[in-house]
Amino acid sequence: MTILKGHQSWLFRDKPVILSAGTVVGPFEGRGPLQNDFDIVHDDSLVGQDSWEKAERTFLEEASKIALQKAGLTQDQISFYVGGDLMNQITSSSYAARTLAIPYLGMFGACSTSMESLAIASYLISTGGAKYALAGTCSHNSTAEKQFRYPTEYGSQKPPYAQYTVTGAGAALVAGEGVGPRIAAATIGRVVDMGITDPFNMGAAMAPAAVDTIVSHFRDLGVGPDHYDLIVTGDLAKVGYEIATDLFDKHRIPMHKTRYRDCGMMIYDYDKQMVQAGGSGCACSAVVTYGHLLRKLSQGEFRRILVVATGALMSPLALQQSESIPGIAHAVALEAPDPILEKEG
Amino acid sequence: MANNKIKKLTPVQQEYRQLALKRQPARPVGVNCLRAFVVGGLICTLGQGIQEAFMHFADMTQKEAAAPTVAVLIAISVVLTAMGVYDKLGQWAGAGSAVPVTGFANAMSSAAIEHRSEGLVLGTGANMFKLAGSVIVFGTVAAFVIALIRFIFGYGG
Question: If DSSP codes are grouped into helix, strand and coil, which group holds residue A308?
C-alpha cells in the first residue's frame, strides 16, 4: 500500500523489493573507480552497432536482460517496463521496449529518469498494480554530445565546469516480495528554475532542485539527514555539489549528520580521466545506484540511503530562444535487505 | 544581451546567480591564451613550411603554392578528425586549433562524420555545414559590407 505523506512524497508501507539489477557501461566508465561494480564493461562504446543511438539502445537492452536473468524471470512475467532516456522522443527506451516486448510506460525526466522510473515502478508494485516492474534508463556520451552540444569529433574547448555524459545503462527489477534492498519512500520533485542559461553549467542549474526535493522529503516524512547513512545526488558533479552544500548551509539543513555524496563525482577518477567537473547523464545515477550502492546495501555497509537523481530539463531549442534551464530532482529512499536491517537495527 | 537576461530574473534568481558564480571555476584564460598562441603558431608554421616546400620542390610561385598548401592542411585536419585526435587537441589548445583553416576543416568533417548514420544526402550532405555554415554566411555578409564601403568611398578600381 502507498500512502501520500505531506505534499509530494509516497511512503511505501510494504516496501517493494529490488529483486535484481543490471548495469552495463562503456570503456571509459570501466576505467573509473567503480569498475568492479558493473555487470558488463564494454571495450567498444559502439558495441558492434553502426550508430551511437543504436549502441545506447543496446546498452539498455543488455542491462534489462541481465536484471531479468539474475532474478530468474522471463520478459512475459514482467507486468510493466518503466523507462526513459535523454534522446528526443526517448528513442532508446522505446526501442528497447520494442525488443523486450513488455508493456511500456515511457517517461522523460532528463537525468532524473533513473529515480523517477524507480519511484513509479515501486508505486505500481506497492498499489498492487503490477506483479513485477522493470525500471531502466540509459545514456551515451556520443549521442548526448551530438544532440545537445557539438559533433563528437569537433575540437571545441569545454569549460572546467562542464560535465561528461556517462555511457551506460542501468535497470532494476522491482517486486512485492522476495529478498533484496527495499524501497521505503519516494519524493517527486518540483521543477525549479533559478535562471541558469549556460548549458555547460548543468550542476548549477540542477543544484536548487536537488536541495528543494531533499528538503521536501525531510519535511513530508518528518525525518532529518541523520535518518540516512548516505544521501547521494545524481549528477551535480563538483560545481553543483558545492552549490548544493552552500544551499544546505543557508537553509540550516544539518547535512553533516549524514554522508552527502554525488554519483557524478564517484564514477570517474579526476586525476586520470579528463571529465572536467564530473559525470552526468541518466546512466550516471543509474549505474552508480544499481551497480555500486545496492551492493553496499546488500553487504550491510549502509542501512538506509536516499538517492536523489537530478535532471536538467534542457532543450537546445529553448536555450537558443533565450530560455533558462529548468532543473528537477526525484528522491527514492532505499533500505538494506530485511535480514541486515533487523540484525543491526 | 546578457544584461537583459539578468534583468528578467527575479531577486531570488539573481541572488542564486551570484552564489552559483562564486562556485563556478574560472576558465584558465592565461594558460588558454598561451596554448592558443603556441598551437596556432605551430599550425601556421607548418603551413608556411608546406608552402615553402611547394615553392622549392614544385617550382611554384608564392601565389600558386597557396591553394595546394591549404588543401594539404585541410587533409591533415580531416585525417586527425577521423582518427579522433583533433577534438582532444581542441580541448587542450582551444582557439589555437579552432582559428586556422584546420579548425574550419574540423568543423565540417566532424559534422559530416557525425551525421553519416542518417544517410549521405540528409545526413552528411545536409549537416556538413551545420557549424561552418554561419561562418560562410557572415563571411559573405562582411565581404559585401566592406565592398560597399570601398565602392561608396571610391577606392574601388
Answer: strand
pLDDT tens string B106-149: 999 999 999 999 999 999 999 999 999 998 999 999 999 999 99
ipTM: 0.86
Taking the CA of residue B37 as centre, how many other CA atoms within 13 Å lie in the half-sphere pointing to its CB?
Answer: 6
Nearest Cα of chain A lies from the Cα of B22 at a distance, in angstroms, of: 9
How large is the angle between the packed helices B86-93 and B29-57, nearest 10 degrees? 130
Query: Nearest 5°: phi and psi at A193?
Result: -125, 110
**Host H or E run for residue A269:** none
CA distance A344 to A188: 30
**Is residue A243 within 8 Å of B20, Cβ to Cβ?**
yes
pLDDT above 70 (res A98): yes
Give, for A342, the enclosing helix (H) or strand (E).
Answer: helix A338-344
Distance of CA A154 to the CA centre of its chain: 28
- Those residues whose C-beta lies under 8 Å from the C-beta of residue B33, and which sit 6 or more positions away, are none
Amino acid code (one letter) for B35: R
3 state SS of B129: coil
Residue numbers in B near A157 (CB within 8 A): 32, 90-91, 93-95, 98
Q: What is the pLDDT of residue B157?
A: 53
Each residue of A40-55: pLDDT tens digit?
999 999 999 999 999 9
Grid coordinates belonging to A215:
528538503
DSSP A156-209: PPPPTT-EEEPPEEEEEEEESSSSS-EEEEEEPPPPB------TT-HHHHHHHH
Among B14, B17, B76, B87, the strongest candidate for a mutation testing the A interface, having the largest count of A CBs within 10 A, is B87
Confidence (pLDDT) at B4:
55
Identify the helix (H) or strand (E) that includes residue B22.
helix B11-23
Of A175-179, B1-5, B44-48, give the lowest mean pLDDT range: B1-5
Q: What is the pLDDT of residues A142-153, one digit of tens each?
A: 999 999 999 999
